[in-house]
């Protein structure tokens, strides 16, 4: 059994007891969350495809931890123009554990 969910503008394929790194969401460690944006659900040899979401399908998850990703550095320069631009960014994320896939 697996599902494809949408979180933070991205699509993720999830199965039970999987730990997943998603865009930062509000919540403390140990909080339970319910994801109702299920795009596809495969359960008991049957495939349910949403238009755009599968009706009645939800995914229950628990917040494990949060943090910030590796540092990404962007350096732009134009030769002979004395133009230099240095950008550094660390994207915040939240780790969640998929507990149950409901629906179908």
What features would you highlight for this structure?
mainly beta, 104 residues, 10 strands, four-stranded antiparallel sheet
Write the layout of secondary structure elements.
Blueprint: E1 2-7, E2 10-14, E3 19-23, E4 32-35, E5 38-43, E6 46-49, E7 58-68, E8 72-78, E9 83-89, E10 92-102
Antiparallel strand pairs: 1-2, 1-5, 3-10, 4-7, 5-6, 7-10, 8-9
Total of helices: 0
Order of strands across the widest beta sheet?
2-1-5-6
Mean pLDDT: 96
Q: Which oligomerization state do the chains in this entry correspond to?
A: single chain
Q: Gap between N and C termini, in Å? A: 11 Å
User: Which structural category fits the helices and strands?
Assistant: mainly beta
Uncertain residue ranges? none
What percent of the residues sit in helical stretches (DSSP H or I)?
A: under 10%
- How large is the radius of gyration? 19 Å
Shape, principal axes of CA atoms: elongated
Largest sheet: 4 strands, antiparallel
């Amino acid at each position: 059994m697996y599902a494809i969910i949408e979180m933070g503008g991205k699509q993720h394929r999830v199965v039970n007891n999987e730990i997943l790194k998603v865009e930062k969401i509000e919540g403390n460690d140990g909080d339970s969350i319910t994801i109702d944006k299920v795009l596809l659900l495969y359960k008991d040899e049957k495939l349910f495809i949403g238009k755009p979401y599968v009706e009645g399908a939800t995914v229950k998850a628990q917040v494990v931890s949060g943090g910030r990703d590796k540092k990404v550095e962007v350096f732009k320069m134009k030769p002979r123009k004395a133009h230099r631009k240095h950008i550094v960014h660390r994207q915040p994320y939240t780790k969640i554990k998929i507990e149950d896939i409901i629906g179908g």
